[in-house]
Amino acid sequence: MTWEELNEIQPVVLQMLANSITRDRVAHAYLFEGERGTRKKDIAVLFAKSLLCDQPVNGIACGKCNNCKRIDNQNHPDVHVVEPDGLSIKKDQIRALQSEFSKTGVESKQKIYIVSHADKMTPNAANSLLKFLEEPSSETTAILMTEQVHRILPTIISRCQVVSFQPLPKELIKDRLISEGINPGMAALTASLTNNYQEAFELSSEDWFAQARIIVLKLYEVLRKSPFQAMITLQEDFNEHFKEKHQIDRALDLLLLIYKDLLYIQIDKGDKLVYPDKKQDWESDALQVSTNSLSGKMTAVLEAKRKLNANMNTQLLLEQLVLKLQG
User: What's the pLDDT at 297?
Assistant: First the structure.
């Protein structure tokens, strides 16, 4: 992605990194932390390009010089990327990295190392990396990336400049999905479920998810119009489609968003709806239910999600939830 595209997503991060280059205050180690899909790796690569670029402009890589192109093609000898080997990053991988650190740059004085999923380092690997970070070199820059900063050794964190990546703006994801031909209603819904554009796109194009939306909407309608039929709907439609725990969790998210939409209608924020095609149908519903009642229903769904992750019997959990939502 270009600087302009990434700047729409993480403007604060990019400005901070550009300033560190123009002011010659580049740290010896950075820890990029943030949720999946927040473009940490894209920005790590862009930062590497900016550090080695032949013609940077205000600390930003030109994207056209030989160094920029070679980094884009993953064949620059002074830029090294470490990925998990299987489920973890092994000590031998860090040792190989340390060996490279000890060498002079092949084509420049500077060497850059990007460690993806740094939280997946084994204890031995983490301790090996820590030894390197304790003796920083002015000619090397390390970029560690993680989605789970709490799993990084505090001693490693203390030796890095932590850069926090914000979740992607939902409007940005929604607009991009619509530009790719996704129905606006589906785009709004999937953008509310994930901060990852690729995941949102896959959900929007998935038959299972489209059917999931229909079934959850049906459950809501049954609860509203004929609550005694809700258990039947649960047995015949819901349980047949949502069989795995992660699928049930997704269904609960879809249900929660319905009640949030009703709340948005009540406070005249129809532009925030994730089921925009249902606005006209739900306007009367929103008028007939109190804010306290909506809050109670949302709390019930959130409590069901918590119990689901605590391994409660799923059938019992769902039946209890339906009874609470009837009230």
Answer: 94
CATH number of the domain residue 9 falls in: 3.40.50.300
Range of the domain at 315: 206-326
Give the whole-angstrom CA distance, residue 53 versus residue 60.
Answer: 8
Residue 25 and residue 159 in one domain: yes
139 and 260 housed in the same domain: no
Q: Is a pLDDT exceeding 60 seen at residue 35?
A: yes
* pLDDT above 60 (res 105): no
Are residues 215 and 159 part of one domain? no
Q: How would you classify residue 218: left for phi > 0, otherwise alpha for psi between -120 and 50, otherwise beta?
A: alpha
Pair of tokens at residue 175: 């607009």
Query: pTM of the predicted model, to two decimals?
Result: 0.69
pLDDT of residue 138: 74
Residue 63 falls within a domain, yes or no? yes
Inter-residue contact 256 to 219 (CB < 8 Å)? no
pLDDT (tens digit, 9 = 90+) per residue, 158-193?
999 999 998 888 888 899 899 999 999 999 999 999
8 Å CB contact between 126 and 153:
yes
Query: Which backbone phi and psi does 152 adopt, to 5 degrees?
Result: -90, 140
CA atoms within 13 A on the CB side of 238: 26
Residue pair 39/50 in contact (Cβ under 8 Å)? The answer is no
